[in-house]
Amino acid sequence: MKDLLDQIHTALGGSPDRGNVATYIPELAKVDPGHFGIAVATVDGQVFTAGHADVLFSIQSVSKVFALALALGKVGDALWKRVGREPSGLSFNSLLLLERENGIPRNPFINAGALVATDTYLGESSPREALGQLLRFIRSAADDDTIHINDEVAASEVATCHRNRALAHYLASFGNLHAEVEKVIGTYSHQCAVEMNCRQLALAGRFLINGPGMPRLISSERRRRMAALMMTCGHYDGSGDFAFRAGLPGKSGVGGGILAFAPGRASIAVWSPGLNEYGNSKLGTEAIELLVRETGWSVFA
Ligand SMILES: NC(=O)CC[C@H](N)C(=O)O
């Protein structure tokens, strides 16, 4: 596995066409597009890495996986009254369908749906308490108490996220946001500003794979359902493309990270900040595609 990751790193690491770094969150625009790391945590307890696998990055929307687990843990299937389970076919921050669909976002991974998930785990508690719960979940999944939130990235998003505020107010107008808009925006922006490196993220993703030594933080049924949602909606309007190329459930973030997993086998984290036309890591997608081609880990194998 280590040799394979090194080969993938060598094959892609020097690629001149790396996509574009997200600039709409000012702090993310500062990240060096030359970074490229990969880590694989296998079900037998080993971790393999290549490239910049120990450099911290902003996990952004990858956090929506942990937020969904937390929201479901809090209210169970009642969440599905407030958010759907269908791909949207639109960009992650689109406002378009919300009006037509009465304030029920298509799925929990687009921003509108993720704001509902954040509102759900926030509930009546303070943002500090809710974020404490989120960090506890991620830290126990990764078995690493050093995982933290980057406050500069969070502040940078809070200061500029007009679209997310618009989405949140719109949700509130339909009665589908219960806490105050600013509380939800603050909690969501801090959630997105969790920092990890590829090694930590691959370890944190182990709660999604089934195996004797893996952290059991959610039921098997919930794990399967989350996998289905990640496969169908985890890469926004690029979800079909990612499923076609990787054949694995995955979740991307505009920081350039992707968490994917091969059920029963391994959790995979990649990071390269340049994004493709859908806002998903360009080299990250290519790296997972190569890894699956060599390992045969597609769930459709
Ligand atoms: N796709 C993403 O990673 C988006 C997350 C980002 N925090 C936002 O809301 O815009």
Automatic annotation (TrEMBL):
UniProt-listed Enzyme Commission number(s): 3.5.1.2
Residues noted as binding substrate in the record, renumbered to the chain: S61, N111, E157, N164, Y188, Y236, V254
Source organism, top-level taxon: Bacteria
InterPro entries from the UniProt entry: Beta-lactam/transpept-like, Glutaminase
Gene3D superfamilies in UniProt: DD-peptidase/beta-lactamase superfamily
Species the sequence originates in: Roseibium limicola
Family statement: Belongs to the glutaminase family.
NCBIfam families in UniProt: Gln_ase, PRK00971.1-2
Hydrolase found in the keyword field: yes
Alphabetically ordered keywords of this record: Acetylation, Hydrolase
Catalytic activity: L-glutamine + H2O = L-glutamate + NH4(+)
Molecular functions per Gene Ontology: glutaminase activity
Subunit structure: Homotetramer.
The protein, known as: Glutaminase
SUPFAM superfamilies in the cross-refs: beta-lactamase/transpeptidase-like
GO biological process: glutamate biosynthetic process; L-glutamine catabolic process
